Amino acid sequence: MKKGLLMVVGLLAAVALLGAVGCVSSGDADASATLPYESSPQSASDLQLNYNSQWMGIWVSGQGKVTVVPDVAILTLGVEAQAPTVEEAMDEAAVAMDQVIATLRASGVAEKDIKTQWFNIYPVRRWLDGGYELLLGYRVTNMVTVKIRDVEATGPIIDAVAKAGGDLIRIQGVSFTVDDLSQYYAEARTEAVADAMAKAQQLAGLSGIQLGKPFYISESGVFVPIYRDYSMAMLEGGSVPTTPISPGETEITLTVQMAFAIQ
User: Fold this and answer.
1) What is the pLDDT of residues 50-94, one digit of tens each?
2) Which superfamily does 56-68+182-225+251-262 belong to?
3) Closest to 123 in 3D by CA, of 96, 85, 169
4) Which residues lie closer than 8 Å to 118 by C-beta, 6 or more apart?
5) pTM for the whole thing?
6) Which residues lie across from 260 on neighbouring strands?
């Protein structure tokens, strides 16, 4: 009995000793964790990293604008035919579209600049009293986009295709764009960066600080093509011999965001 009691007492003593050692280790860890930040051997680099973080420095945005005269017209047009059967509707649409395409080619539009946008065949129904529906026939729509590289020829081309397509012609609209934007984006980018740097230098001067090197820059550009809608009323007869088309001017806008370090 005494022997067993001695064994139990010995085990309890051993457990207590291990617990004390664990507490000492834990205490050392806590003491290490609460040491001042400057005592860490990596404190200088960490502070430099924080100094150059996105929360430090001068952040500005700059904008550049370039006015451009469009040199390309994008014309969206096609034909739409309705008949009692699908075959009849398709035949009517095909004949009208062939005439429109032939007119475009004769007007100097290249084959590569004519692209099918969509082709649809769908039934035309009318709902009657009592919840019944009456099938009136089928409608075929064939639309293309046409790139006209001679902007001044846009009006005469619209008149020509309207005559070729007759009552089946559908002209959705025309937009104007620039064939090669790279040169104008470069000009706008130069203006945007200069604008951002001027703002940063002014802010630094007003704040009594010295401007450092930029450590961040991004850009976003916006080019909005001019779009004009042309109804059939504009294309039918009248005293005007040619549909008037004016591309006007458009703006290419580019914005940059820059961040500068503070020395």
Assistant:
1) 444 556 799 999 999 998 888 999 999 999 999 999 999 999 999
2) Protein of unknown function (DUF541), domain 1 (3.30.110.170)
3) 85
4) 141, 143
5) 0.61
6) 58, 214
